[in-house]
Amino acid sequence: MDRKKGIVLLSGGLDSATVIAIADQMGFATYALSFDYGQRHSGEIDAAKNIAKISRAAEHVVAKIDLRIFGNSALTSDIAVPRGRTEKEFESGIPITYVPARNTIFLSFALAWAEVLESSDIFIGVNALDYSGYPDCRPEFIKSFQEMANLATKASVEGKTKITIHAPLLNMTKAQIIKKGLELGVDYSKTLTCYDPDENNFSCGTCDSCILRLKGFRENGISDPIRYK
After folding, report:
1. Which whole number is the average pLDDT over 189-205?
2. What is the CATH topology of the domain spanning 5-219?
3. What is the reported pTM?
């Protein structure tokens, strides 16, 4: 029997690598979608390609868009990436690493591809517990986008399908995500999470993303397998 098609937003990071493994475990044929959007940590695109291959994705598309034309983010502009912040500081506001409307844009691309593939399932690795305060990682955002998706597509309006946005990591801590991924055989040495890796793709260890990642591995009592400066 043919497996249902699931679109998986695959950044090349720890969370999305876990999500594609979860989608596969759920019985979906995975269609990975990554973005070259002008991010300073472009090494994640190569990581995404490796993960898609290892995960035996049915197809992997890298969409090229340029969010640098809008800027206003440390990931798409010449703005310093915050380093050494405490968990309390994570809760103090939306950090400058937030890319305006990024998940809305990414999910919109995924929605278009899902309609072409006649898929009703989209997977995204957002997390509302151990995260950096981004507004587009919250449960209410996912719920609202799903409602919009079912109003915006030809397939939904004609009653052929009902779009579901799967966010399996939404209520998990980073430690729980890593534990789940290890149970599914995810090779985290192939992932890149850092916001500002060096030219060799060694992670900085001090940006928000690295801090949360290291915390997750530490709470599992194991070492992070990636390379740090």
Report:
1. 96
2. Rossmann fold (3.40.50)
3. 0.96
